[in-house]
């Protein structure tokens, strides 16, 4: 990672799970961070547990409120915008489709329109989802050029967001005229991110944490569903890497990018339950959900060959290591350790391991050259 000292960053959705980790990562790299989001979506929340309101400028407001968003962005004068604000839950989207589309689609329009109004932002990283693709339940991983789609309101809204991003890039921020308008826009699609400090409802790993802490058997729906699981820092480091390329003026990176795990880490839900129980030190007993299950994809994988080839990005953690890090985070914080210190410690350890592996790969490659 490069030095972010003096870089002003604007993050929408900073009070959420991913936004909180991204805020701490960028602060660790030296950035000046301003966040814009609704109040933390969970209680407890990583944002509050880590005391992030005291470490950054935090604007509590709705991404659907365009005037307030523009004013906040103008005050922050960012070099980079990371757009994470979203309604992120599939099952919630069935009951609240208007909120889901309003936040995920029009919220994206508002962010890009605010960037256009400001005229000084150098890079935009718009975060959507692996569920933006038209899922055909096939065994092949999805590439960035595959069609957008979505059976449920959440997935559909993320596909719509990608179309909005592509249209704004073509209409207002074309790569061919980057030297004129100065703003490069990329979209990023990650797999199922997991990590310490996620207390969201109706999400597998937080549900497991709650069950294990309570000494109860978790209730699991769709145990055979396969997802591209990865630690949250894997995706966030990828996002930051794209931002660094865009800040450097390389318009080739102003497009869509997948960030997902190695093929062997696309695992079924039941595997995650058993492996996390093992790491926690409890029996892996669980009960099937006996209620109605709205449609969710049974199989989803991402093709990340473009990020590996063109960005040099590769997963740092195995899935087993990611699960161990989650358990370590919750046990440390549960024992009274400071959530911010634990999180920053894991960020530093992750970046160190990443650098070591990159250095090792370079030495191996160099030894085979002539």
Automatic annotation (TrEMBL):
<dbReference type="InterPro" id="IPR016040">
    <property type="entry name" value="NAD(P)-bd_dom"/>
</dbReference>
<protein>
    <submittedName>
        <fullName>CDP-glucose 4,6-dehydratase</fullName>
    </submittedName>
</protein>
<dbReference type="InterPro" id="IPR036291">
    <property type="entry name" value="NAD(P)-bd_dom_sf"/>
</dbReference>
<dbReference type="InterPro" id="IPR013445">
    <property type="entry name" value="CDP_4_6_deHydtase"/>
</dbReference>
<dbReference type="Pfam" id="PF16363">
    <property type="entry name" value="GDP_Man_Dehyd"/>
</dbReference>
<feature type="domain" description="NAD(P)-binding">
    <location>
        <begin position="10"/>
        <end position="173"/>
    </location>
</feature>
